[in-house]
Amino acid sequence: MRISIQHLTKVFPSRTKGGKAVHAVEDMNIEIPSGQLVGLLGPSGCGKSTTLFMLSGLETATSGKILFDDQDVTTLAAEKRGVGLVFQNYALYPHMTVQQNIRFPLDNMRINREEGNARALDAARLVQIEDLMARKPHELSGGQQQRVAIARALVKMPNVLLLDEPLSNLDARLRLQTREEIKRIQRTTGITTVFVTHDQEEAMSICDIMVVMKLGVVQQIGAPQHIYDDPNNLFVANFLGTPPINIFKGKIQGGKAYIGEEAVGDAPYGDREVYVGIRPEGFIYNPQGALTLNVDHIEVMGRDKSVVSTHESSTKPTVRSIIDSDVALPEGAEQLKFDIKPYKLFLFDAETEERLR
Amino acid sequence: MMEENDNIGTPQEPPKKHNKFVQYFINLGARIKGWFVDKYTAVKDFFCGLFHKKTEEEKALEYSGPQLSRGEKFRRGLKSQSGWLFVAPALVLMAVFTFYPIIAAFVNSFKQSYSGMTGKFNGWGIDNFVRVLKGDTGTGGADFVQCLVNTLILTFISVPLSTLLALLISVALNSIKRVQKAYQTILFLPYLTNALAMGAVFATFFKIIGTQNNTETVGLVNIVLGWFGVDPIDWVGLRSPHWQIGSLSIPWAKYVVTIIYEVWSGLPFKILILFSAMQSINKQYYDAAKVDGASRWTVLWHITAPMIMPQISYLLVTGIMGGMKQYSAIVGLFGVTMGQDYDMGTMVGYLYNYIELGQTGYAFAGSLILFVIIMIITYFNNKITKKRTTYR
């Protein structure tokens, strides 16, 4: 199922008289090809869950259109859209067994018992919980509950699968495992899937298409790697990547980008104040390098080492640079010099925070 | 893949930040609770200490400070057990007004021809019970079997009916937004009204003959029935229709009046309980049901009702217990004679009747039988509801 979101806007009227209405989603335009795994990414309150609920039909759009293939579903009731929705807290019915929970959508479609049970079992197999069919939700672990919720969403063979923060209630180890699982299930079923997350690592690792949002406005859409390598603005650059990008206050003068008095790269743009963003992996140790950092300490991680240092122009307390562990650094040096890989260096206008390119 | 030890369960939300005012009460609550916990442990230790014979080692460990005088020891001991002083008034009152009457009722029910005035009786035996159950009291008072049947019929029709109605009304109330508060208030009004007064009003509604300006009229209900071509029925009066089964009379018209009254007066409390229970159901369950295409009916019977099963079963249990003890409504509707020749008598009505007649022996025996019946019903109630409510 292809999803097309056109000029979608959601405004929540203010609760108090004369208060300000909240623009949860503003003029959103996305084209999602069939069978893709799409991640809506952004900090809390950026409208990503609202978008998801508008796709499911639980929220009505203020204006704009949602198309499934070529059918306009903007005003269609939730139950008629054929979407499967997995809630953040799973919303499993506590008084029903796993089997009854999974079969619930089928019962509502008046599918007979044998077929319902068979399909429920199929869905359970897909998420590998077929041994737990007789249990009640409170007898399951968080990860198992999550699977039941996914099975319940999948059992009616939805056109679109929607997941609201699917991994936020799981612990770190399980989160890694489950995100692989979601990817696998999505691949197996080929259902167009949209999920919401605030965890950029999670989104980066499994999405085909990533949508980065901020305050209801889409910042950038694209493949995760592409957005990481080519961010549109300071917010996107800052939001993606672990450890996060280093941001310095700098300026452009005569076609060169400066941090303090040191020129760190070419900048064929007009002279102005800028933010200079450098990815942690963009530093190359060089005793005659362009940028001087005051070393605080060095963390050795095996594969690579991480130089934690300070710089007076940095907007963050520390500057983190990751270099290969086989690069020899002088012992006990207080200052180190680095060259900057040009494709890991981004320049943002200090006022608009838009990328210069 | 099966996780073996991912026992995360439901998510732990971070503790909420409250404003100062709320926080004060939370702290106060915690302090009060702490006080009770302390007292509980103190009492427990005290009792454990009583039945525990100390070894020499423990005695040696117990107290190693300076030796105290006997008076000081006593004072300290008294202080540490001062909790008893606080519960003493309640204990004394309960002993006088609860425990003693229960024991006295039990003992006195076995005294034959017991006179409440003189305290004289004619030997011990089960004569009271036999006469009560046979209906052979020889005083023209209420009949036990009639009263028992009345009570059971009225209870087991009106309680489930009013609970069901309360459920439906709560659902309706829950689904409106605008004048919810106003409706809530109106629905709660009957709860604040006196049972006898309401009974009198109901009786007037159902009366066949009233007089107004020296003209004979029928009651409101009969007027309405008259619009549909139904002849006036004497709902509550002397000519009230009834079926006769052996010596048992089934005054169905009076049953109808009583059941309507019971349902109506029972609704407010039930609505209050069910409505507040519904408001605490997580809205996500309803969203999930909506996405899954559940009809309103399915949502009510497969989601709402099971989710508030603990409250429903609470209402059924307490409703049935209360129903077994109903009396004031009957007096309000049918007067102190409880209908004609006590044909609308209830169990408690039976007890009152015989106390009034000075035959306390029968009242004691009746109360004991009632006690056993309520025990049995409660036992089954608990068995059934436990099965239906323990989903957590």
Element order of chain A: H for helix, E for strand: EEEHEEEHHHEHEHEEHHEEEEEEEEEE
Strand order in the largest sheet of chain A: 6-7-8-3-9-10
**What is the fold named in CATH at topology level of the domain at 144-389 in chain B?**
MetI-like fold
Q: Return the CATH topology of the largest domain in chain A.
A: Rossmann fold
Could you give the topology of this structure?
The complex is a heterodimer of chains A (357) and B (392).
Chain A: E1 3-12, E2 22-32, E3 37-41, H1 48-56, E4 63-68, E5 71-72, E6 83-86, H2 98-108, H3 113-126, H4 142-154, E7 160-164, H5 172-189, E8 192-197, H6 200-206, E9 209-214, E10 217-222, H7 224-229, H8 234-239, E11 246-253, E12 256-259, E13 262-266, E14 272-278, E15 283-285, E16 291-300, E17 304-310, E18 319-324, E19 335-340, E20 345-349
Parallel strand pairs in A: 3-8, 3-9, 6-7, 7-8
Antiparallel strand pairs in A: 1-2, 1-4, 4-5, 9-10, 11-12, 11-14, 12-13, 14-20, 15-19, 16-17, 16-19, 17-18
Helix pairs in contact in A: 2-3, 2-4, 3-4
Chain B: H1 20-50, H2 56-62, H3 70-80, H4 83-108, H5 127-134, H6 144-175, H7 180-188, H8 195-206, E1 210-212, E2 215-217, H9 220-227, E3 243-245, E4 248-250, H10 252-279, H11 283-291, H12 296-307, H13 309-324, H14 328-334, H15 347-356, H16 360-389
Antiparallel strand pairs in B: 1-2, 3-4
Helix pairs in contact in B: 5-16, 6-10, 6-13, 8-14, 10-13, 13-16, 15-16
Task: Sum this structure up briefly.
With 357 residues, chain A is an alpha+beta fold. Chain A contains eight helices and 20 strands.
